[in-house]
Amino acid sequence: MRAHNSGIFFMPSFTTPVLPDLKRVINAWGTPTPYGVSRSDPAVAEAGSLMLQRHVVLADLQALAGRELAAWSGAESACVTHCSAAAITLAVAACMAGTDAARVAQLPDNTGMPNRVLLLAAQQVNYGQAITQAVRLAGAHPVPCPALADLAADLARGGVACVLAVESHLAVGSGPAVTGELAALAHAAGVPLVLDAAAQDWRARELVTGGADLVLLSGQKYLRSPTAGLVLGRADLVAALDAQHGGVGRAMKPTKEALAGVLAALRLRADMPRDAWCAAQQRKLDAMAAAARGWPGVTVERTPDPQGNGFARLWLKVDAAVTGISAGGVIGLLRAGDPVVVVAPHRAAQGSIGLELTAVHGEELPELCALLATALNAG
């Protein structure tokens, strides 16, 4: 490492990589946080890098990001927080405290505030953190309800800060119909509906018209921005959520490089026709399915994304009696290799390996096929 002086600053100049050697990852899972979620476009990385090298009035940058997010999604207002998990906590806090400075400072002490958060028991997802814990971090009490009728009865008991809905392929049965029913119940009781739709950014315009008062998205998933929670919805609630960055959300505020990256990612998305993106995903899936159908002991099933995001997933059903290795065994071998290959493990106990190829580059596809075939033959 060399160094030079620039005025009063001592500026290091690195001639070797800052990071040690790390294993390469082929991500055939989708957008998993433990494996880096997504790969940003070079223009997004450059926007974040340039912002790291300057000062900025952060409130102005947040306001600009909010305006562009609102225009992109059709929402009344928008802002950015650190990630979608943070957005859940801050949305709940916003519904409890509003923009009242004393209440914002008081949380997580919920004295004198509505503090119950109702959600369907079937939507208690765990995305690396239980969603109920995200609620409790705000000082609220999550109340899982077995069915819509139970939720309606709990609304009548009062003291409800908000109803929380989830739309995710991890929440079986979730989707616009259920969200609409939850919105109707919440609004009849004068309570806002918060929708966690982290991986649904392709559906942003649809979601903001689906009855939710706040829609929470992950910027780093299919939008491929730096890590960021995108908050879309009612202007008063967006303002209340942003206010929590000066309270319980201080550790959840967005960084300047994330805000710059979100802006760059939004502009790239505007130049990306959805039909063309979906067609590219289809071609990759077709190639993988054709290869997998030739593997002994493997049955291929193609399933459209249940939330309507415009792509499908492959499920490889592994007959261990033929392959000599279980689906779980294959997944373990792939993760232990170099490069690391990650696939969806949710149905391993049922003998299936899940493949989502949205993050797989075309040149990685032959290598992925070869590594899967090798693992399947390892038994």
Give a brief description.
The protein is built from 14 helices and 14 strands. The protein has 379 residues and is of the alpha/beta class. The relative contact order is 0.15.
What is the strand content? 15-25%
Low-confidence stretches: 1-11
Helix content: 25-40%
Mean pLDDT: 95
In which order are the strands of the major sheet placed? 4-10-9-8-7-5-6
Task: Say how many strands there are.
Answer: 14
Count of structural domains: 2
Shape: globular
The main pleated sheet reads as: 7 strands, mixed
Which structural category fits the helices and strands? alpha/beta
CATH class of the largest domain: Alpha Beta
Order of helices and strands: EEEHHEHHEHEHEHEHEEHHHEEHHEEH
CATH superfamily name of the largest domain? Type I PLP-dependent aspartate aminotransferase-like (Major domain)
CATH architecture of the largest domain: 3-Layer(aba) Sandwich
- Our count of helices gives 14
Radius of gyration: 23 Å
What is the rounded distance between the termini?
Answer: 48 Å
CATH topology of the largest domain: Aspartate Aminotransferase, domain 2
Describe it.
39% of the residues lie in helices and 19% in strands. It has 379 residues and is α/β, with parallel strands linked by helices. It has two domains: 25-37 and 273-376, Aspartate Aminotransferase, domain 1 (Alpha-Beta Complex); 56-270, Type I PLP-dependent aspartate aminotransferase-like (Major domain) (Aspartate Aminotransferase, domain 2). The strands form four sheets. It has a seven-stranded mixed β-sheet. A three-stranded antiparallel β-sheet has the order 11-12-14. A two-stranded antiparallel ribbon has the order 1-2.
